[in-house]
Amino acid sequence: MTPVKSSASRKGGKESSRKKKGLPAERHDGRRAAELVIITGMSGSGKASVLKAFEDLGYYCVDNLPVELIPRFAELALQSADIRRTALVVDVREGSKLGRFPAILKAVRRMIPTKVAFLEASDAVLLRRYSETRRPHPFGADTPVTASLKAERRRLASIRALADIVIDTSKFNVHELRAHITERFREQPTEKSILVSSVSFGFRHGVPEDADLVFDVRFLPNPHFVAAFRPLTGRHPRVAKYIRSFPQTQEFVNRISDLLIYLLPHYIREGKSYLTIAFGCTGGQHRSVMIAEEVGKRLHKAGYRVKVVHRDMPK
Fold first, then answer.
1. Is the pTM of this model over 0.90?
2. Which residues, at least 6 apart from 305, have a Cβ–Cβ distance to it below 8 Å?
3. What domains appear along the chain, each with residue ranges and CATH number?
4. pLDDT tens-digit profile of 250-264?
């Protein structure tokens, strides 16, 4: 005889499932419980774009709220019948009072389910963004941006350690970043919300620093030694057909695609938001390009969000 679970047990299992998926628990009256997301991180990392994404998701959003007012903000969210999902930005513009944030966060987490999303990017990317926007760093225009970034990382180190989610925005443009946040925080996130980058590169130019998985495809016959293919790339139909004609190519694509489709759900369960898979050949023009395209198509067909990047392919 199959035992019947009590309503409390079923409810507990449901709430546990929601917790595992990163969703706030439901109240007894069926409404979602209040939740707070605190967005913080490096200047120039995309906090404004992320806040707009939360606003589009229906969150009540506040930028640069003084840290001393966060507990009051949380109280209002709990008391409001209309505002359930809230998000705010806290960063180094707060000045010396930012040092009080860890203690305030601890107190707020006792009041309301709270997540901290920390945004960062490489110094090279942040410097490029500052150069493009021509905006001064919050520490002032009198200090070189490189020195300001170094000082900012030191000041934010203790806050980064408290983060529930750390997002490196170096890999995203503004549209991809907003799409990533939307996918991750919408009310019913999909089980395939990870962003996969399928990257081709040439070993002669170095392995991509941000690669999570690297596969060497130099075992495939090289189209470079076919005069007609030399000026073309792996995206050209004739070159792709040539590479695909070898049985080891099909075997490799099939095996790697199956492996990745097996691995991705495990990465998602461990909280990974994006995965960079790099395929390398000698120059990054033919074999790696074709393989990155082919594997990207397989993963997209399997339901994943895929971004194909050819780092060293001739423009």
1. no
2. 179, 183, 192, 193, 194, 195, 196
3. 33-185 (3.40.50.300), 195-310 (no CATH)
4. 999 999 999 999 999
